[in-house]
Design a protein that fits this description.
Blueprint (H helix, E strand, L loop, with lengths): L1 H17 L9 E6 L2 E2 L3 E3 L5 E2 L1 H13 L2 E6 L2 H9 L5 E7 L2 H4 L2 E3 L4 E3 L1 E6 L14 E5 L3 H5 L6 E5 L2 H9 L5 E5 H10 L7 E4 L6 E8 L3 H17 L1 H8 L4
Parallel strand pairs: 1-5, 1-6, 10-11, 10-12
Antiparallel strand pairs: 2-3, 3-4, 6-14, 7-14, 8-14, 9-12, 9-13
C-alpha cells in the first residue's frame, strides 16, 4: 500500500510539473493579446494569430535569449488575467495611462497614436466636435471608450471594434471611435470595407502604446526593454513596424 501511495505521489508530482503552464518558470513568457486589433494582433483568413505584436514578442525574446509567445485573450478579461498571474504580460495595443500605471508597469513605448472618428464616406461628420448627439460605437474598456466621457453622445459599447464598424455599415451607428492605427487598417487595408469608410478629422487624443507587465515585475520588464533596445539598434524594430504599416 505504501509503495502504491509513493508511486501515485510521484506521478502526481510529475503531472503537476508538466501541467504548470507556460511561464517564466519553464523559460517561456506568455503575453496576452486581444486578436481583434489589426495590424497589432488579429486572426488571419487561415485562422492563424498574427500581427505586429504577435511577431514582436518572439523577436524580443530572441534578442535576450528567452522564449516569448502570444496567446489570444478577450479584452474584457485581459487585465484581470494579468493581475491574477494567468500570463506574464499584455501585448495588445495597450495605451499607457496614469490609471493603468497604478496596477501594472509598462515597457518603453512601441508606437504612438490617438483616437480618431471613423465614419461612412458620405457622412456629414468632419471631426470629433461633430459627435454630440450622435450614436457612436466603441470597444468597451478601451481608451476610445474613455475618450467619449468628454462628449455628449449616445455611446454604444461592443466587445470588438470590428462589430461596431459593421453595425455602422448596417445603419445603426453614426460613427465609431478607435485608435488611429486600427482605424487606418480598417479604412485603407481591409478589402471588405474598401471605399466605404473614412477617418473624420485628426486624432483628438495623444497616446503611447507599450507592453504591460504585472506591477513590480522588474525582471521581465528589463528583459523586454533590453530586447526592444537591441531591436532598435539593429534595425529589426523599424523593419517590423514598416511591414505592418505602423508609422
Amino acid at each position: 500500500m505504501k509503495k502504491l501511495t509513493a508511486i501515485l505521489l510521484m506521478a502526481l508530482c510529475a503531472f503537476t510539473a508538466f501541467a504548470g503552464g507556460a511561464s517564466e518558470d519553464d523559460g517561456v513568457y506568455v503575453f496576452a493579446a486581444d486578436a481583434t486589433w489589426p495590424p497589432f494582433e488579429f486572426v488571419d483568413e487561415n485562422g492563424n494569430l498574427t500581427g505586429f505584436e504577435v511577431e514582436l514578442m518572439p523577436l524580443i525574446g530572441e534578442h535576450v535569449g528567452v522564449e516569448m509567445v502570444v496567446e489570444n485573450i478577450a479584452w474584457d478579461t485581459i487585465f484581470a488575467g494579468l493581475a491574477n498571474g494567468q500570463y506574464d504580460g499584455v501585448a495588445s495595443g495597450v495605451t499607457v495611462t496614469e490609471e493603468r500605471k497604478q496596477t501594472m508597469d509598462f515597457s518603453m513605448p512601441i508606437a504612438s497614436q490617438g483616437q480618431v472618428v471613423v465614419v461612412l464616406q458620405d457622412s456629414p461628420i468632419q471631426s470629433a466636435d461633430d459627435l454630440n448627439g450622435k450614436k457612436v460605437g466603441v470597444q468597451i474598456g478601451t481608451t476610445g471608450d474613455f475618450a467619449l466621457d468628454n462628449y455628449d453622445v449616445d455611446r454604444r459599447q461592443y466587445d470588438d471594434i470590428g462589430l461596431a464598424i459593421q453595425d455602422m455599415i448596417n445603419g445603426n451607428l453614426d460613427a465609431c471611435v478607435c485608435d488611429s492605427i486600427i482605424a487606418s487598417d480598417f479604412v485603407l487595408a481591409n478589402e471588405s470595407y474598401k471605399g466605404m469608410l473614412r477617418v473624420a478629422g485628426e486624432p483628438f487624443t495623444d497616446e503611447e502604446i507599450a507592453i504591460a507587465v504585472k506591477k513590480g515585475n522588474t525582471e521581465l520588464l528589463d528583459l523586454i526593454n533590453q530586447g526592444l533596445e537591441a531591436m532598435m539598434a539593429d534595425g529589426s524594430f523599424d523593419e517590423l513596424k514598416a511591414k505592418w504599416n505602423i508609422l
